[in-house]
Amino acid sequence: MSDFVSDFWGVYIAVVVIVGFVGLAYLLFTQSKTTVKKGEQVEITGHVWDDDLAEYNNPLPRWWMLMFYITLIFGAVYLVLYPGLGTWKGIRGWTSVGQYTEEKAAAEAKYQPLYDKFLKQDVVTVAGNSEAQAMGKRLFQTYCVQCHGSDARGAKGFPNLTDNDWLYGGTPEIIKTTVNGGRQGQMPAFGAAFGEEKVKDAANYVMSLSGKKHDADRAARGKETFAAVCSACHGPDGKGNQAVGAPNLTDSVWLYGGTEKTIIETITNGRNNQMPAWKEFLGDGKVHLLTAYVYGLSHNAKAQ
């Protein structure tokens, strides 16, 4: 409720809650006074089914009415203690943000010494520690599986972390840099500049680099285009450049797919992919464990 743009809405909500609460209490009170004396005939409501099945206007049982009174009392106490009346914070001053902060502080006090212990060790050593790998796996399953998958083998547009093919490099230092600061991978769109035929030529040359079935004539023409434009990022031999995250085009690993149709789509429209930065959110200790876990996925058989 603290994000209201004016005090009016806080008052408005408080009035609605109070009026509704009082209205329900009044309705309950009036219905509680309705009784039926022994032998007294109860009127029907006028609802009749199958000619003789009628709905009688009997008052609610006392025990049921008592439950409603208990609910109203509980609601009144809750509105006094906790937020519920517009901008009123309740006498306990509880907020979801405050509770989150307290629980986070308690968790950090409990687990930070453990994080600090592993933070003093290098990534390779931590990657070989079963306890650290179990912690890193839980971190990975919490923050990373949405993109890289529960088995860390990635998906279309998201790298496989279990092999040794790395866009930016797979050393402990580079992996930690990636986790800390994130990555912004971008390939420009060349469809407008090349034209449809030239794009197909370049695609066939790219397919030839990895030994895929291709059109030799188109590949020969595409080689010139590749040398003039694409080699700036992917290198003259097509083996990529980890300094800028340009992938190796000579192997069988494809981030978006290696069919002619997909390669043409990539050259025509370009690609734009981003990995978020985790340093501020996770902190050094968790990043260190996560780095060790990711490193272990492709270097430690037990981690897989």
TrEMBL record:
Component of the cbb3-type cytochrome c oxidase. The keyword Magnesium does not apply. PANTHER family: CBB3-TYPE CYTOCHROME C OXIDASE SUBUNIT FIXP. Its main location: membrane. Binds 2 heme C groups per subunit. The chain crosses the membrane at residues 9-29, 63-82. InterPro entries: CcoP_N, CcoP_N_sf, Cyt_c-like_dom, Cyt_c-like_dom_sf, Cyt_C_IC, Cyt_c_oxidase_cbb3_su3, Cytochrome_c_Oxidase_Subunit. Belongs to the CcoP / FixP family. It is found in: Cell inner membrane. Residues 131-210, 217-298 form the Cytochrome c domain. It comes from Vogesella amnigena. Keywords: Cell inner membrane, Cell membrane, Electron transport, Heme, Hydrogen ion transport, Ion transport, Iron, Membrane, Metal-binding, Oxidoreductase, Repeat, Respiratory chain, Transmembrane, Transmembrane helix, Transport. This is Cbb3-type cytochrome c oxidase subunit.
